[in-house]
Structures are given as structure tokens and as C-alpha cells.
Write a structure and sequence with these properties.
By secondary structure, the chain is mainly α. The chain contains twelve helices and two strands. Helix 7 crosses helix 9 and helix 7 runs antiparallel to helix 10. The longest helix has 34 residues.
């Protein structure tokens, strides 16, 4: 037996536990979910094989369609606004000014709170009669808002919570990128008479692009799977005005006990996320080049 083969046989036992963990915690649950999605199965009842009927029903389900549109709208706003505000905050905190360290610490405090705690605090603030936000609006002569209690404002209001909670994360990622930028291009640009805006547009922004794309990927994944904050604040209401795909999935599985249909939702949503992740990773590779 060659030394290389003996080496491989000796260390294969270190790989087996990891492979078993992957199969037990990732591969098996997904295969079982796909299997369950082929049944008309309600908890406590009998299973009936229906093949692709759950998927056919899913694509003709108007409620699922609206949930998907709300998810995409929520995700788009919950990604774009933190990216813009996080970039602005990073540029500000990259400058030297008194008490900069304290200001950074205060700015990242929202990120330290758990989503459920954040949701409970904002729920009290959004109350139409007792909430502090409407009181503040009244002080400056603006009519009160229904916030999460109106179908017209519930999604933008939930995005406000998401932006407040996760903009500090984007700021930290971009701030790390700013700290690593070389100084030579800026010195050359100043010699050529470039303005601060020109330096930002032609030097800072292109060099920060990989960091911005990383922040984009993280925020997109996080916004797509948002559940706890939305559920605690609105439970998908009023009516179904804030029912995203995750809320829809939760209700199908744990309110209506329709695990077969819910499993089909999981499979379709996973396929969408996989396609989006592939697109984002392709974008990241293009930016790195």
C-alpha cells in the first residue's frame, strides 16, 4: 500500500462525522421536504399522493402571487435604502471629528438588538393613539399616520424598521473597505485638480464596489428571509397587506396545518433564492474582475 493511500485511509474517518452532519442537517431535510410536497397532507390526517398538484395549485394561487410580490417589494426597499444610507454613514464616519468613536458606537447600537425586541419597541411606537411617532408628528403640525395599521403604509413602515436595524451593518462593511483604500490615487487626483465629488465618483466608488456587492448579497439574503420582525408587528396584517412569502408559508404550515402545500412553497421559494444567489455571485465575480 502506497503512503498516499494509507494517508487517505487514515484521515477519511475525520471526514465521516462532518459528512454525516451535512447529510443529517441539510440534505435529508431537503429531500424529505420535496417528498412531502408531493402529498396532500394535513397534520393529524391521512396522506394522499398528488404528485405535482401542489405546485400547480401554487402557481394559480392569487394569495401566493401577492405574497411573492410583497416579498420582492419589501426586499428591494430593504436592500436599496440601507445600502445608500450605509454608504453615506461610512463616508461620514471615515472622516476625523471629535467623539467619532462614540458616534460610531451609538450608530451601531440598533444592530445589537434582537429582531423580536426591535419589533416590540417599534410596535409601541407605531400605535395610532399612544405611539410616540404620532405625538412627534402632532408637535410639528403633521396629521397622525396609521403606520402598520393601514394597507397603504404597512410595507413602507416595516421597511423603516428594517433600515433602522441593519443600516449599521452595511456601514461597518463599507467602512472596512474605506479603511483599506490606497492613498496614491487620491494624491494623483488632487495634483490633477479633481474635486471631492470627482474623487468619490471615479476613485472611491469603483474601489468600494466589491465591498458594496458583499453588503448587497448579505442584505438581500437577510431581507428575503425576514420573518420575525414582520410577524411580531403585524402577523401579516392588516388583512394580508404585509403577508410576505415567509408569513404565507408559516400560516400554511402552522395555522392551516397543510404541510404538503407548505412544503411546495418551500421548494419553489428555495429555487427562487438559489437563482437570485447565483445572479448575485456572478455579479460579485464580475465586479472583482
Amino acid at each position: 500500500m502506497t503512503p498516499r493511500r494509507n494517508y487517505a485511509r487514515r484521515y477519511v474517518w475525520f471526514v465521516v462525522p462532518a459528512a454525516f452532519a451535512v447529510v443529517a442537517t441539510i440534505l435529508f431535510p431537503w429531500l424529505f421536504t420535496i417528498y412531502v410536497s408531493a402529498f396532500d397532507w394535513r397534520l393529524g390526517g391521512a396522506r394522499e399522493w398528488v404528485g405535482f398538484a401542489n405546485y400547480t395549485k401554487l402557481f394559480s394561487d392569487e394569495r401566493f402571487g401577492w405574497a411573492m410580490l410583497r416579498t420582492l417589494l419589501y426586499t428591494a426597499m430593504a436592500v436599496v435604502f440601507p445600502l445608500i444610507l450605509g454608504l453615506v454613514a461610512a463616508l461620514v464616519f471615515n472622516q476625523k471629528f471629535p467623539l467619532r468613536g462614540l458616534a460610531r458606537t451609538v450608530f451601531i447600537l440598533p444592530m445589537m438588538a434582537t429582531p423580536v425586541a426591535v419589533a416590540l419597541v417599534w410596535t409601541m411606537m407605531f400605535h395610532p393613539q399612544l405611539g410616540v411617532l404620532n405625538w412627534l408628528l402632532a408637535q410639528i403640525g403633521i396629521p397622525p399616520s396609521m403606520w402598520v395599521y393601514s394597507p397603504d403604509t404597512v410595507i413602507p413602515t416595516l421597511v423603516v424598521v428594517e433600515v433602522w436595524h441593519w443600516t449599521p451593518l452595511v456601514m461597518l462593511l463599507i467602512l472596512g473597505g474605506l479603511a483599506s483604500l490606497p492613498g496614491d490615487p487620491y494624491e494623483a487626483a488632487k495634483i490633477d485638480g479633481a474635486t471631492a465629488l470627482q474623487c468619490f465618483w471615479h476613485i472611491t466608488l469603483p474601489l468600494l464596489a466589491p465591498y458594496i456587492v458583499v453588503a448587497l448579497i448579505i442584505r438581500t439574503i437577510d431581507a428575503l428571509k425576514a420573518f420575525d420582525t414582520i410577524y411580531v408587528i403585524t402577523q401579516g396584517g392588516p388583512g394580508s397587506a404585509s403577508e410576505t412569502i415567509n408569513i404565507f408559508l408559516y400560516l400554511q404550515a402552522f395555522a392551516f396545518y397543510n404541510v404538503g402545500y407548505a412544503s411546495a412553497v418551500v421548494v419553489v421559494f428555495f429555487a427562487i433564492i438559489l437563482a437570485l444567489a447565483a445572479l448575485l455571485m456572478w455579479t460579485r465575480q464580475r465586479v472583482k474582475q
